[in-house]
């Protein structure tokens, strides 16, 4: 006799559904997030910036996780106020502090600023609040944030640099035990400039940078297999997503606020237009899993030989089935 399946917990399902509906839109940033400036794989940064892969869908469980991060941030800022620090976490318009570079294509929101720390009572610090599982928390405590969790260090460093501040305060709470770690950093402007210049190079690259790992099954490539949203496009010969950002006609502009231009129609592109694409879309060749065999400029088509040996023609009259 077959075992009786466990009943579905309708209360939990309803909670997840409610949280998912509260963040109904798929999450996709307009530029390279400052939180990703420390990403080792330049190709992953490029794919993300170009919207080459399907956007992350915020499920109910993910929405709860995001809210947990917000709660931890507010908890740590409150702790600073409790010890007598002045904390400013909103700008004059009542919004979270926002910083950008590279014509708005690098962007992010900082947690706040504080003054009155026991170690330096008169010095303003940029604040970055995080929480981490015990494994990662212990690495941070042992090595310091720069060596223990470089991505967190890069965020704080970049916000300090863009705000013109000399000092930063990193706060991290152990998710397992509740312990709190605090570390003050001195701004390394040369490293901040290098990180921003690296991101600018990726943003304006016409093609994706080289793969970090050629073989996704290699031991060192565990992030490719288990954590990268671009695994299919990068390693599994999947077509990139059809958006203006994967089209040869679209270019990110070096000025303004994350602005793009279409050379085909000679016009600026709104975020909504970028996501939708248009019938004249032509893939950046490196995002197609095949080799170019013919280009017809008059017909505005490009023909590829795909991995299975078949021919596929990309162009204005293509029905888009392959994408």
Short description:
The protein has 10 helices and 14 strands. The chain has 323 residues and is α+β, with helices and mostly antiparallel strands.
Structure description:
It is a single chain. The relative contact order is 0.12. Helices cover 32% and strands 21% of the residues. The strands form 4 sheets. A 5-stranded mixed beta sheet has the order 2-5-6-7-8, sandwiched between helices. It has 323 residues and is α+β, with helices and mostly antiparallel strands. The model is unreliable at 318-323 (pLDDT under 50). The chain has 10 helices and 14 strands.
Largest sheet: 5 strands, mixed
> Got a strand count?
14
Can you count the helices?
10
Helix content: 25-40%
- The order of strands across the largest sheet is 2-5-6-7-8
| Overall average pLDDT | 92
Q: Report the sheet-strand fraction.
A: 15-25%
Which series of helices and strands comes N to C? Answer: HEHHEEEEEHHHEEHHHEEEHEEE
Quickly list its features.
323 residues, alpha+beta
Please give the structural blueprint:
Layout: H1 10-22, E1 32-33, H2 42-49, H3 60-82, E2 86-88, E3 98-101, E4 106-109, E5 112-115, E6 125-132, H4 134-143, H5 145-148, H6 150-163, E7 167-174, E8 180-186, H7 189-203, H8 222-226, H9 231-235, E9 250-252, E10 260-262, E11 267-269, H10 271-276, E12 290-296, E13 301-306, E14 311-315
Parallel strand pairs: 1-4, 6-7
Antiparallel strand pairs: 2-5, 3-4, 5-6, 7-8, 9-10, 10-11, 12-13, 13-14
Helix pairs in contact: 1-3, 6-7
């Amino acid at each position: 006799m077959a075992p009786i399946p466990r009943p579905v917990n309708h209360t939990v399902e309803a909670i997840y559904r409610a949280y998912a509906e509260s963040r109904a839109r798929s999450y996709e940033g307009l530029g390279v997030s400052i939180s990703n400036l420390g990403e080792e794989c330049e190709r992953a940064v490029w794919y993300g910036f170009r919207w080459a892969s399907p956007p992350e869908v915020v499920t109910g469980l993910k929405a709860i996780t995001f809210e947990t991060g917000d709660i931890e941030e507010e908890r740590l800022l409150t702790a600073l106020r409790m010890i007598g620090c002045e904390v400013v976490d909103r700008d004059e318009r009542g919004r979270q502090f926002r910083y950008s570079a590279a014509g708005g294509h690098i962007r992010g929101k900082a947690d706040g600023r504080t003054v009155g720390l026991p170690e330096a009572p008169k010095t303003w610090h940029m604040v970055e609040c995080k929480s981490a599982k015990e494994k990662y928390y212990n690495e941070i405590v042992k090595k310091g944030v720069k060596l223990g969790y470089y991505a967190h260090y890069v965020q704080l460093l970049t916000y300090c640099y863009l705000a013109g501040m000399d000092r930063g305060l990193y706060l991290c709470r152990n998710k397992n035990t509740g312990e709190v770690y605090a570390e003050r950093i001195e701004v390394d402007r040369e490293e901040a400039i290098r990180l921003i210049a690296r991101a600018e190079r990726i943003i304006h690259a016409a093609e994706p940078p080289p793969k970090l790992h050629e073989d996704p099954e290699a031991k060192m490539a565990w992030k490719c297999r288990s954590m990268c949203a671009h695994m299919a496009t990068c390693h599994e010969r999947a077509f990139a997503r059809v958006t203006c950002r994967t089209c040869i006609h679209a270019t990110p502009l070096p000025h303004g606020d994350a602005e793009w231009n279409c050379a085909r129609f000679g016009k600026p592109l709104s975020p909504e237009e970028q996501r939708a694409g248009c019938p004249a879309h032509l893939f950046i060749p490196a995002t197609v899993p095949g080799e170019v065999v013919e280009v017809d400029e008059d017909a505005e088509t490009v023909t590829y030989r795909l991995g299975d040996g078949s021919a596929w023609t990309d162009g204005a009259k293509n029905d888009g089935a392959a994408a």
